[in-house]
Amino acid sequence: MLIDSFGRVHNNLRLSVTDRCNLRCTYCMPEDVTFLDRSELLSFEELTAFTRIAVGLGITKVRLTGGEPLVRADLHVLVAQLLQIAGLHDIGLTTNAVLLQKYAAPLYAAGLRRLNISLDTLDPAHFEQLTRRAVLPQVLRGIDAAVDAGFVQIKINAVAIRGFMEHDAVPLAHYCRERGFELRFIEYMPIGAGEWERSKLVSAAELLDLIDREVCPVAPAGSYDPTAPAMEFDYADGRGKLGIIASVTRPFCHHCNRLRLTAEGKLRNCLFALDELDAKPLLRHTPVDEAGLRELLHRSVAGKWAGHQINAAEFVKPRRTMHLIGG
To answer: Per residue in 121-136, pLDDT tens?
Structure first.
């Protein structure tokens, strides 16, 4: 099993399939960016081979990320391949939903059942300010298409940035409650292209107070999993759930069970890691160097630090921006 020096058992793999994206979210990436050459990206076969090795070491959950994963052609083919791996119990997808209207049905037919959809606001002007693209109607149609395709496990992820979330949180909460989605707020983190401004952070405590006052009181969920990144809450009236990922004000590092593989094959043991290990040469070796990949996974986990130290003076912002890491 993949157990680090702090006793944390790792069973969750974030698998990035591309660094490309059809949005330019201000907290994620710059407007002008040079993407990787497509030959640098791992193939579906290489991603599947890596996942099979990881599952053999205890990984049971995979989340497909990007960039925006739906810009990778035929993603449903990868989903079908991964679902053939014995021992892999859970596959999810994080998407901005811009292309979901086209791909929801093929993904569901391939066996995908869980979606995390990034949506920070229902206000068209705010959406364009945050993403630098005026495509909110496409996103909402994509969400509708996912429901029509049969998806019932849908979470809406919203990054809480001051100047926006004070106005956008309540409409998002009502939208999710009406549709049966779980809304998850994510504290604004130092991971984007520009300088992080802590003054823009809207804390978990502020968000809970806002939802309590203007939507419905909430209480900690009875099903709360301490290894999950989100603190989970139930609405008092029984109409749905709320989650908050408080990476800054209430870090969950001591329970972290995640590894990340970037689109070009770099293995990272933390979102904020400053070092990474290269799996691509082992995957492109003929035959695939399975023993080397197992050793790489164990080495990555063994080198994992206690936590990201965002709140410490010695914190160093990662060189990679979010679209190059994988959400």
So the answer is: 999 999 999 999 999 9
